[in-house]
Amino acid sequence: MTIEANLARVREEVASACRRANRPESSVALMAVSKVHPVEALLEAYAAGQRLFGENRVQEFAGKFPSLSACTDAEYHLIGPLQSNKSTKAAELFHSIDTVDSVKLAQRLDSAAAALGKKLPIYVEVKLSHEESKHGISPDDLPALLSAIAPLENVTAVGLMTVPPWSEDAETARPYFRHLRELRDAQQQLHASLTQLSTGMSNDFAVAIEEGSTCVRIGTAIFGRRISPDQQA
Question: Is the pTM of this model over 0.90?
């Protein structure tokens, strides 16, 4: 299957999930997670009409960026953990940083965005599982972080993001998606800009849509599994 064919299938699956959840298709954005895939894969997806992409590492995307100059209306989000010392480069390369989990990082991004003369949307990543490998702020610390971000002039908290424990059974992710929505709803009374929920991946995005996701992050179902050079025949 080509990337174009995969995108068409995924778009239809997202549309079907929206219909089942009685939501307009326009209420859910499809992010193509292009991390670890070559820039040629992004260009193929762009040619097939895809405009929203997610990348995991600043350095990796910096290497791809020069080849994307013709993709003038594409939007790139950083969806991997960001070290504070890379915040300046991240603010320069990305349209949104979706993994903010500290006041320090938010402040650094604000300063970097100010120097660039841009307004930068950010998502706060919330850790709802107990897995060591997961990143994000605890739900108890979320109100304080959002309050600290609110006065910053060049970054705006527009949503929350989380990654639940992986399971073949998509239903196991539902409590995590629901919890994030409830956190968003509670904080939205104080922070009107907090409208977005970035939840759901290839194996569980239908459940995420049922629980209010506004952006699903799909990688493998679009680009396939990344094969390292030493594995290729």
Answer: yes
